[in-house]
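<instruction>
Derive structure tokens from the sequence
<data>
Labelled lines for chain and fold:
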Amino acid sequence: MADQALLLSDGARFPSVGLGLWKIERGEAARATELAIRLGYRHLDSACDYGNEAEVGTGIQQALGKGVCQREDLWVTSKLWNTYHAREHVRLAAERSLRDLKLDYLDLYLIHFPIAQRFVPFEERYPPEWLFDPEAESPRIEAVPVPIAETWEAMEELVRAGLVKRIGVCNFGCSLLRDLLSHASVRPTVLQVESHPFLTQEKLLRYCQSEQIAYTAFSPLGAQSYFSLGMAEPSESLLNHPLVHEVAACQHRSPAQVLLRWGVQRGTAVIPKSSQEKHLKENLDLFDFSLSEAEMRSLSRLNKNRRFNDPGDFCESAFKTFFPIYE
């Protein structure tokens, strides 16, 4: 099926299914990465903040060393963390990710959040995470006034230097994208945002398609990754939703495959996370069936604008700092 990859504005093919590396434990990350590549994954979605890039890099090198594929066959994404938004820190952060991933270049480098935080030196704490000083009496997120334009210009320099092939953003809405496009000399290639049938973001997807910005859906299975963080209730599971089970039964597929197929079929890339071979295989096996128009519509009608990954909620509850970005 043609939807195994999205055709990007520069002519590159962006694999529609990737391995999301958030919350894969460091002890599991090398094995899971090597296994995923061996099973056919060619799109790996990483980030400084995930804390496992060195192990992911080991897994990549193991797969390449065994001749599973060539480096140019892989699409590797990483992300600029919030503490590195100032011009002088952007290249340092990219170079650190490249060293950890044991790569000469990234296929895509994304601004992780439209949030600029106070710089934490690499030798002091890496990844720096959200709190500026976890040992303080009242630890908080400390924001700094770095314009996105400054960060983006430094990201553009990474492209010119050959360290990254493409740049993009995460967790931006239409207004921030429109502003970015007004001054960017290197256009964003990809937007990555939370997206699933409870959060369809249809206007944002339509806007990206009109601007030839590819759209990657993180958390494409919905609430699963957020139960352990206290950011979702088990009753909010899409994998247990009656409609998803009904479609899965009709299609003779698993509920996860239905949710991922919905994402792929609406023209987005999806990056489900797993370290189990059974689920890795299942999540990749989406291209020999299609959902009907009626099934697509019924799944989309589940939308209730439920965002699980919302700094406006979790920053206050976890880090005692009110930090809304979507409202």
User: Anything to note?
Assistant: The chain has a mean pLDDT of 96.
